[in-house]
């Protein structure tokens, strides 16, 4: 009886460990082969940047993520080890990508990346905004954005081109009740300079050709969408 109890306890422990690991992996990445899971979108971007995934890449958000204060920006194919033809990021469940980036950074960043689709709709039914991307910072943190497209000076990336952001809820960190809200917070920022950090919300970057932004709800941002 004691042995049976020990076996049950061991099985329960294995299930708990497996369940915790499963719950901590909210980002699935595949390019037609086996699925690799990550805890954050930033982790997935890092794997793509070093060439772990290539070709037509699909990123599926399977649960809520908490992005780091200094996120990894997705670079252009051809930079470092990145080698992809397209990337699609979409949820399989209603989910939230959130983060509290330091001043000068954003929740999600794309550094010269081309042919990226962010689609917040769960495919298969009517079109909905099932994905929220939220900057959870206090309103005192300035020079931030929820999504930033960075115009890099590194070939072949340069400006981010042929990208789509649609069907998402995008929430910044501006206090809507403030008499003088921060003017340096954006929902979607195409610009802010060419460096890793935002040098100014209205600072000019490189070209962002053929950028489609469609059916998003943008709130708590001084600039909902701004391109420079």
Q: What is the compact description of this entry?
A:
With 228 residues, the chain is mostly beta strands. It has two helices and 17 strands. Strand 1 and strand 2 form a beta hairpin.
Any overview of this molecule?
The structure is a single chain. 14% of the residues lie in helices and 35% in strands. With 228 residues, it is mainly beta. The strands form three sheets. A seven-stranded mixed sheet has the order 2-1-3-6-9-12-15, with helices on one face.
Instruction: State the distance separating the first and last CA atoms.
Output: 72 Å
- Summed over residues and divided by their number, the pLDDT gives a mean of 87
Enumerate the spans where pLDDT stays under 50 for 5 or more consecutive residues: 1-23
* Number of E-state strands: 17
Strand order of the largest sheet: 2-1-3-6-9-12-15
Amount of helix? 10-25%
Radius of gyration: 19 Å
Number of H- or I-type helical stretches: 2
Shape: globular
Order of helices and strands: HEEHEEEEEEEEEEEEEEE
Protein structure class? mainly beta
The main β sheet shows up as: 7 strands, mixed
Strand content: 35-45%
SSE topology:
Blueprint (H helix, E strand, L loop, with lengths): L1 H22 L3 E4 L5 E3 L2 H9 L4 E8 L3 E3 L6 E2 L7 E9 L3 E5 L6 E6 L4 E4 L11 E5 L8 E7 L13 E3 L1 E4 L13 E6 L21 E3 L2 E3 L3 E5 L1
What features would you highlight for this structure?
228 residues, mainly beta, seven-stranded mixed β-sheet, five-stranded parallel β-sheet, 35% strand, globular
